[in-house]
Specification:
The chain is α/β, with parallel strands linked by helices. The chain has 2 domains: about 240 residues, Aspartate Aminotransferase, domain 2, CATH 3.40.640.10; about 100 residues, Aspartate Aminotransferase, domain 1, CATH 3.90.1150.10. Helix content is about 35%, strand content about 15%. It has a 7-stranded mixed β-sheet. Strands 1-12 form a two-stranded parallel ribbon. Helix 2 crosses helix 6, helix 3 packs across helix 4 and helix 7 runs parallel beside helix 9. The structure holds 4'-deoxy-4'-aminopyridoxal-5'-phosphate. 4'-deoxy-4'-aminopyridoxal-5'-phosphate binds next to helix 3.
């Protein structure tokens, strides 16, 4: 499709073109059943197969152990900021948070409504340009869980390690890195991710939760916000986000066909590596993030001149590379290069960066 732009948005973002085109071919008549997935009952045999296959394929590509539940929920990453404390503050009502950016901070503030929540480390004093090292000694021994945001979409940082929390469950927001790298799920008590970056359309949130953590929500927790409600009903307690689940399922199949998450990760390392190498070699662009903590998904850079940054974003847009502006809270540039961003898009961006540098130096 000649009209398609390279969309560097942090989310919603690009989806694999073959997935979109297959969905388009099936839009009015899904696999000969005479109706669209948008129209069919969520209790139908056809949709039953869609959601079962989606879960099975996600389990396969993420190698999710059997003692973990997979749920497809609504409410975005943001609702998880509340559901996590409502369900996991189960004994001491204490939880320890690592604040590495705006999303982690929002999660912390939400949790603070429900218990004794402590910030055990933060990189805010250095505008979130690095990931703090936390060890078991930093964690309160009676904490009910430890919370991290594994990839910080706005600042472009990513954990270079999985914090060792011992027996205390580790909760991770993986909204902007799920399926971009192989993850040992067994190291986490709960992982959640909004769909609209690496998974599918907005409207669906994946929750992967160790089974023994279910069932601790207090009596006052609304039924809908109790993970047990969704786990016991296979994400079908009420009408799920059917179309988003369908597309996500198609993306999971596509990942399998492409050789799995490991194969995608190799490409992601190469894509991000090219961009960071170019930025580091240039004296025109800078990346403020500590090298070992840099995200493969969100590459943040600046020229050091806010007006020039704006010009960059506008001129790139005119060449079919859209949404290169940094988050409205920090400005500068951000190239979000999720799984579906082809190498061709990264190459085109680097060519443009060279041209812009030559014209504006
Ligand atoms: N966590 C992270 C890491 C995010 O990047 C975002 C949104 N971009 C959110 C949470 C919030 O997600 P949502 O908009 O789905 O509520």
């Amino acid at each position: 499709n000649q009209n398609r732009v390279f969309n560097f948005s942090a989310g919603p973002s690009m989806l694999p073109l073959n997935v979109i085109e297959d969905a388009a071919a099936n839009l009015a008549d899904y696999e000969g059943c005479g109706q669209s997935v948008m129209e069919m009952s969520h209790r139908s045999k056809e949709f039953g197969k869609i959601i079962e296959d989606a879960e099975a394929n996600l389990r396969e590509i993420m190698n999710i152990p059997d003692n973990y539940k997979v749920m497809f929920l609504q409410g975005g990453g943001t609702l998880q900021f509340a559901m996590v404390p409502l369900n996991l503050l189960r004994a001491s009502k204490k939880a320890d948070y690592v604040v590495t950016g705006s999303w982690a901070k929002k999660a912390y503030k939400e949790a603070a409504k429900f218990g004794d929540i402590k910030v055990i480390a933060s990189s805010e004093e250095n505008t979130f340009t690095y990931i703090p090292e936390i060890t078991k000694e930093d964690i309160r021994p009676d904490a009910d869980y430890v919370y991290v945001c594994y990839n910080n979409t706005i600042y472009g940082t990513h954990y270079p390690y999985i914090p060792d929390t011992g027996d205390i469950p580790l909760v991770a927001d993986m909204s902007s890195c799920i399926l971009s790298e192989e993850i040992d799920v067994s190291k986490f008590g709960l992982i959640f991710a909004g769909a609209q970056k690496n998974v599918g359309p907005a409207g669906m949130t994946i929750v992967i939760m160790r089974e023994d953590l279910l069932g601790f929500a207090g009596d006052t927790v609304p039924t809908y916000l109790d993970y047990k409600t969704h786990a016991e009903n296979d994400s079908m307690y009420n009408t799920p986000p059917c179309f988003a689940i369908y597309i996500a399922g198609e993306v999971f199949k596509n990942i399998k066909n492409m050789g799995g998450v490991g194969a995608l990760n190799k490409v992601n390392v190469e894509k991000a590596g090219k961009l960071y190498d170019y930025i580091d070699a240039s004296d025109f662009y800078q990346c403020p993030i500590r090298e070992k903590d840099r995200s493969l998904m969100n590459v943040v850079f600046v020229t050091g001149d806010a007006d020039l940054d704006k010009k960059f974003v506008a001129e790139a847009k005119a060449e079919g590379m859209v949404n290169l502006n940094g988050h409205r809270s920090i400005g500068g540039m951000r190239a979000s290069i999720y799984n579906a961003m082809p190498m061709e898009g990264v190459n085109k961006l680097i060519e443009f960066m060279k041209k812009f540098e030559a014209e504006n130096k």
